[in-house]
Design goal:
Chain lengths: 114, 114
Amino acid sequence: AQKVTQAQTEISVVEKEDVTLDCVYETRDTTYYLFWYKQPPSGELVFLIRRNSFDEQNEISGRYSWNFQKSTSSFNFTITASQVVDSAVYFCALRAEGAQKLVFGQGTRLTINP
Amino acid sequence: GAGVSQSPSNKVTEKGKDVELRCDPISGHTALYWYRQSLGQGLEFLIYFQGNSAPDKSGLPSDRFSAERTGGSVSTLTIQRTQQEDSAVYLCASRGRLSYNEQFFGPGTRLTVL
């Protein structure tokens, strides 16, 4: 069985601060895919990134960066110099190779205050 | 290009009535998913369609729920004899041909059962 844990239910920071959203996963599969999605107040889930289990390279996209560590089963997401528009609920998700459904964490509600 | 679309965006119904929710996936996407997002349960997988294969219905919560996908494109999720606990946002997602592709989500249908 797969499981995704986002221990941080809510985070509130002041604009321009850096913030890291934690994601820990459990799976027995050797091949799997990890995802981050953003759900702004409008409600639509927006895809941010996919990471394959065999690729542990960290990734940076503008102010966003992701740290994938298989040794600790973690896939953390950092926003640098946060902005008010980053306010949303962020979901980490896991899909095992051969499985079809995404298993989501409970989400972290991020509020960026001006 | 058009993303995943869902209709209606909001649906209010009375307990015991049947409802139909529609999803139009991204053109060319072979895989289609339904998820449910509710306060108490987070994001839950409901059903998955891939081409002409038999759907994976393992996430459907009861036999009151059913779904079909006509012509490999549009999908309809039907809930019969709705109950108050069916109130949630129903999300549809589609995915491209490759198994590791990310899923793209529609805006959802907010269902309220009175």
